[in-house]
Amino acid sequence: MSKTKTNKVLVVDDDTDILELLQYNLEKEGYDVKTANNGQKAIDIATLFLPNLILLDIMMPGMDGVETCRILRENTALVETHILFLTARSEEYSEVAAFDAGADDYISKPIKPRALLSRIGAILRRETKKSSKESKRIEIGSLMIDKQSYTVTVNQKAIILPKKEFELLHFLAQNPNKVFNRDELLQNIWGTDVYVLARTVDVHIRKVREKVGEDFIKTVKGVGYKFDPTAV
Q: pTM of this prediction?
């Protein structure tokens, strides 16, 4: 399926060959593509370009991909942007650091362009389909979650959440008192096309609790997590 020019991709890598390879394949599929060879350039371009998706190398000189991702996730104009890490590192701690910084997916090098294009297409199609089904605004007591603007307020105080943290809170709040295990949350928030560790859910739950309060999401020992509407 060809993509429209509304799907914009920013590719960030200090390897010129990888930039050229990915740019060629993405543009061939109809994506609007820009490239950057370091973290600061990526931040500057993303601020103006507002890509739908960023492919971000972890191991770069100067500002690495994890720090770049953290800064990108602080930009409220990029809350709906998907960030996929590209890395040759396979250690578990690298993957955890990537998701802790706000990544949506983690792709190991060497990159297979056809597989990568398939992954990108699935992510963007799934996001469009999911957005059409979800309630745009949830209000429970002092908590307000607005899907349209990706904003959360607690007692009228704005809380900034990266995309996946927001989606996790939104999903649980849409299903109050229903317990979901890690696999169910991974499938509903990250999708079946994204390969992430189960502990990624725990990392995101912890970060949501740190920002919106400990009582909103309850742990059901040995089972999973649920949203408690009485906590608000």
A: 0.66
